[in-house]
Amino acid sequence: MMTNHGNRVTQGQFSFLPDLSDEQITAQIKYALKNGWAVNVEYTDDPHPRNTYWEMFGMPMFDLKDPAGILMEINHCRETFPNHYVRVTAFDSTRGWESPRMSFIVNRPDKEPGFRLVREERGGRSMGYTIAPYAADRPEGERY
Amino acid sequence: MGKFETNIDAKPRYSAGVIPYKKMGYWEPDYRPKDTDVIALFRITPQEGVDPEEAAAAVAGESSTATWTVVWTDRLTACELYRAKAYRVDPVPNTGAGTAIDAQYFAYIAYDLDLFEPGSIANLTASIIGNVFGFKAVKALRLEDMRLPVAYLKTFQGPATGIVVERERLDKFGRPLLGATTKPKLGLSGRNYGRVVYEALKGGLDFVKDDENINSQPFMHWRDRFLYCMEAVNRASAATGEVKGHYLNVTAGTMDEMIERADFAKNLGSAIVMIDLVIGYTAIQSMAKWARNHDMILHLHRAGNSTYSRQKNHGMNFRVICKWMRMAGVDHIHAGTVVGKLEGDPLMIKGFYDTLRETRTEMSLEHGLFFDQDWASLNKVMPVASGGIHAGQMHQLIHYLGEDVVLQFGGGTIGHPDGIQAGAIANRVALETMILARNEGRDYLKEGPEILEAAAKWCSPLRAALETWKDITFNYASTDTADFVPTATASV
Amino acid sequence: MGKSDDAVAAIVSRHAQEDGVVDLEAEFRASNIQEVLDTLDRELIGLMPIKTRIREIAALLLVERLRKQFALTSETPTLHMCFTGNPGTGKTTVAMRMGEILKRLGYVREGHLVTVTRDDLVGQYIGHTAPKTKEVIKKAMGGVLFIDEAYYLYKPENERDYGAESIEILLQIMENHRDDLVVILAGYKDKMDQFFMSNPGMRSRIAHHLDFPDYSADELMAITKLMLADQSYRLSPEAERALAEYVPLRMALPHFANARSIRNALDRARLRHANRLFAARSQALTRSDLMTIEAADIRASRVFREGTPDGVPAAVGLVTGQGDLR
Question: Does this model's pTM top 0.90?
Fold first, then answer.
């Protein structure tokens, strides 16, 4: 079990808050749409901090006016992958950004076992470090 | 090619002797700066009896080609081109007759691009702030702002990583980053020092930082610090599933020594290293190149800057340092907090932050920006707000500083009554709850205290933090304020 | 949501507390629907039965909202509609205004109109249709989804047709996302009736059927003048007489599409007007020349000469089935 605050992976903008309700998620998506950002739903069962490419649940949603469609996709993704991490990412295409501007987790496994830290002793007192999710010992799709 | 236009009669101009700078061609009121000119704006306090235009011409002369007397060797050069040209002098509002302050003037001086070596801050500064600040014709002199042409900016690398890529590497979006400086500043052993780093990062901060004067002292040699800090960073990363970092200060006596420390940090897997402004412009540029070549984020502590930036009549404005540091290539720079313990007028600080973060800044006198400035696609620098800030000010911090900033709560984390982790949790919860409220469209500046109180109901570390620091404010008048607002804005 | 909603809520709760009375007139004014109705009046000539229906629907929705505030009802009413009528009778324009009315009454959040046909909803291969339909639905959420010639979604002659999949998804959304989306199905009346007969599920989800009548010749003349004035043209008296003859002739021909046919006829008249001026370019032109459509510009139409519509040879027109040739 993880021993940090909330006993959970704390990636994303709102991991220190109680899980967001659908109304709260809708408000955040509204903020993204107001800024003209495209919203994407992604899922994974490999929460390694440097696992950049979570699976895309469909294409990023461009040109939407209203958050309801995105919430529909989020719920669809949560129903399909109830024990995966699901995150919502908002992309800004303006010059000088062209990068995500928001990212927050909206679904996570019931139990989060956390990460193993492997130390490799090197010359002198130096140490090489590797982090691996305990869950990733099992094959993709059978982890949580 | 046509001859460079001039209206100076050669015979009297070049006969031996001393003539006023104005007459030597350094004052050209009709001059229209070219797009490729570097422009500097000086605040000049002339000596008694010195005409402001002559003082401006003297500054132009001394910061470009002139010496105190006429030299015939000028005529072997395209000297009309190389002469800097003072082209505009405006009295500074609220100075001179009828005020308690000596008359001051804003002097605009244009420099041709060929006066400068490409890609060298040292060369630029040797001209602009080289000799001229000790010049007797002026009582005081302050470099207020500069317009750097795109053509010149293109010769600089700019920030090694920049805000966008830093966020991508850290996988942290949509909120300010959280940091803390390890305290006490001096005296901890490497082992004890790493404990502070581990607790703060596991609690919820993104970064912990060495202080500016933590280098390699008898109580803790640098390698010990690096080894224990990286143990702490990796342990915290495994405990949270987040990318974490500690700014390892590589400031040292020689360039070789700095590179050795930086290499060691990289080999231990650190994402970021740190330097102090006092290492000098050339060393900073070298470290920026090193950082770009080794995928490292480069943090700069502005140690020493207040020796010349704080007083309004002499020295240089911090916004000029911001510009030079963006060109030199640092990724982080301490740029003020508005609400904390260090100097900082809200309008001036907005000017600094815009200078560091925007793709283009428009002239805005109330923010102390005297020129339109196109940043020629140089990366954005992440400003760092550090010094006397705490969770109870979160709404003000986000309002004044925005979301692309590192908020550093040193005392505000380590001084928490329930321990360092609790301090970090309090800060992170305060931050996330405020960003959530902001995005929901709430008037978070006004409702900030209630928003924090509501979160404190379910988060006891935040409750304790709010209780501990509820009365802490630093309400002193700022010394460095805008000249173009009716009244100086008070520090909050 | 928004201010007007809050204001209404305040009025209602105050009245409810006082004596359980509510001022419907004040409610109506607060909603600003009259503004939309006025716009509709200005934009569309005639169409009296439709305008009356719109007014009735608006009144119903306003009252429904009040009933909800008095807790007399809790359901969101079904708002999906069906607009039938020939091409060029103003269905899209009315749908656009309907979106605004629904927004002002708080039944949709944005009120924008997304117009689609079968091609936007139905895919070419297995697994293609659902994402396509959902993509459209997501874009329309918060507003109105206008499906033109909706009956083409259903092809009884091909039981493997992917259109059925799209209909399934639409039905589900129309039922479960009533707060998020209003669907308007549009097309010819007879074809739509057939469609509903084969798809009773769809019929049962439609709350309002509006049948758009064809324009009379007089109304079409009025529309012509409105269109010309918008473009700073005018008809000479002779041209007006020519047009008055043209309109009934055109109405009798196949593929007549009401206002759309008139727009096309005017486009061609403008072309002939320009060519006529160009042919006589040695003469000086006045402002009036540049504005005035003459009888010759109208009478050159094939409608007079051959008794077929202008633009495309009659045989080709049947094949393409586009524009006013439909």
Answer: no
